[in-house]
Write a structure and sequence with these properties.
- It is a single chain.
- This protein is mainly beta and 92 residues long.
- The strands form two sheets. A three-stranded mixed beta sheet has the order 3-5-4, with no helix packed on it. It has a two-stranded antiparallel ribbon with strand order 1-2.
- It is elongated and about 80 Å long.
- The protein starts with 27 loop residues before the first strand and ends with a strand.
- The mean pLDDT is 90.
């Protein structure tokens, strides 16, 4: 019970390299090399970036009397957002 050979078909239609692609509410992070207007990867949302780069707040712990507050730019494709990097420099 061998399966029959597939019958030869017509050559496929050429595929438009700009067809398809992603529609991003956050903006496009990467475009197709074959089509400069076709998005293949969206920028992450702010919530996704916050999960990757959570705020760090040493000053919220009890006993901190002096704090350095930095708001740092997130790296990579999260660079539109900032995270807290608060460092306590004096404890009581």
């Amino acid at each position: 019970s061998s399966s029959p050979e597939p019958s030869p078909s017509e050559p496929p239609e050429p595929v438009d390299p700009c067809a398809g692609g992603k529609t991003c509410s956050t903006g496009c992070a990467e475009y197709s090399s074959a089509c400069s207007t076709k998005c293949i990867r969206c920028l992450p949302t702010e919530a996704e970036c916050r999960r990757r780069y959570p705020d760090y707040d040493d000053c919220a712990r009890g006993g901190c009397t002096a704090c350095l507050d930095f708001y740092k730019q997130m790296p990579g494709d999260c660079s539109a957002y900032r995270y807290k990097d608060f460092i306590c420099v004096s404890w009581r």
